[in-house]
Amino acid sequence: MKKKIDLRNSVIFLVSILFISIFLLFLFENEKYIAINKEYKISEEEISDYIKFSKFQYYELFSPEEWISISKTDKQKEILVKNTINNVLLYKIKENEIKKNGITFSDKEINKYMEMDENNEFKNKLRNYNISENFLKNHIKNLLVEQSYKKNFLKRVNVSNKEIEKYYIKNKNDFIIKKVRMYQIWIKKSKVVNGENKNPKKLAYAAYEELKNGKDFKIVCDKYSQDDRNLVGGDIGYVDKNTVLSQLRDTLDMDEGIYSKPIKTKEGYFIVKVGDKKVITKTLNESNHKIKEKIKEKKYEEQEKNILKENSININKNKLKKMYDLF
């Protein structure tokens, strides 16, 4: 009788040990994940890599100040981390969906894009931000997945004439285009002036000073501007908010004959002068294709929101807060 009890106790003990081992293994396995649902797991590394990559983009394309402005508070950081988690989740879901249609991307295809960086200039910049080459490969794959998934989705989406007409009526003001004749001084590289090598910023402010002192825009443009339009006084024709660089949009509201201070863009420094203005109203027929594309884009965004609702994910709050240190 005692032997039977001992055997039973041994079995119970072994089962308990096995259960605890499985539980601990589960905990250990899930320890590296910041977000989990029934089908998908997102690691801390995936999110930290994308946050570092976002920081890199802001620093290189805009400025450190721009990055700081969107990530000052813990609330801003929380939103950015959650958005990153959602984006990574969407990539995973979309990759699964296109796989069902037999679409995958091989290392060979991905490496073709990697090889475009012949001098490793881009990869070296990424290393400065502690971003690995493996991340870049995965990011390229994700972009290809997104492109393929979106292309297939937009191909399937139908937009009726009624939807197009309703959009046109609701957004009538979007089809009233204010056109402004613009003249520009565009400075993109250093130049020797009076024996002194001046960088683009110095050149732009030197040109601005001459304008302030009463020199004609055409003469200053001919002296400083570094594109072919200096031959016609910097005239770039009629533009609107959709056809100018985003940094120059505010200048469209200036009065006729007024010129701006030097404006820094990733293309160089600009000084712009406003000429005459006109207003054009585009008809429904003229706007048909553009409206159709906009409605398709909106449907795509709505579909992404629905995907996230259907695949709600549990986020580890402690791990989320750990990401704040990356900002």
3D architecture notes:
The chain crosses the membrane at residues 7-28. This is PpiC domain-containing protein. Keywords: Isomerase, Membrane, Rotamase, Transmembrane, Transmembrane helix. This protein has helices at residues 2-30, 44-62, 64-70, 74-100, 107-114, 121-128, 133-156, 161-170, 200-212, 217-224, 284-310, 317-322; strands at residues 33-36, 41-43, 176-187, 191-193, 196-198, 235-239, 263-265, 268-281, 314-315. A four-stranded antiparallel β-sheet has the order 6-3-8-7. Strands 2-1-9 form a three-stranded antiparallel β-sheet. A two-stranded antiparallel sheet has the order 4-5. α2 packs across α3 (64-70). It has twelve helices and nine strands. A hairpin with a 4-residue loop joins β1 (33-36) and β2. The longest helix has 29 residues, at 2-30. 57% of the residues lie in helices and 15% in strands. It is an alpha+beta fold and 327 residues long. It has three domains: 1-31; 35-156 and 300-326, no CATH class; 176-281, Chitinase A, domain 3, CATH 3.10.50.40. It is globular.
Q: What is the element layout, followed by pairings?
A:
Blueprint: H1 2-30, E1 33-36, E2 41-43, H2 44-62, H3 64-70, H4 74-100, H5 107-114, H6 121-128, H7 133-156, H8 161-170, E3 176-187, E4 191-193, E5 196-198, H9 200-212, H10 217-224, E6 235-239, E7 263-265, E8 268-281, H11 284-310, E9 314-315, H12 317-322
Antiparallel strand pairs: 1-2, 1-9, 3-6, 3-8, 4-5, 7-8
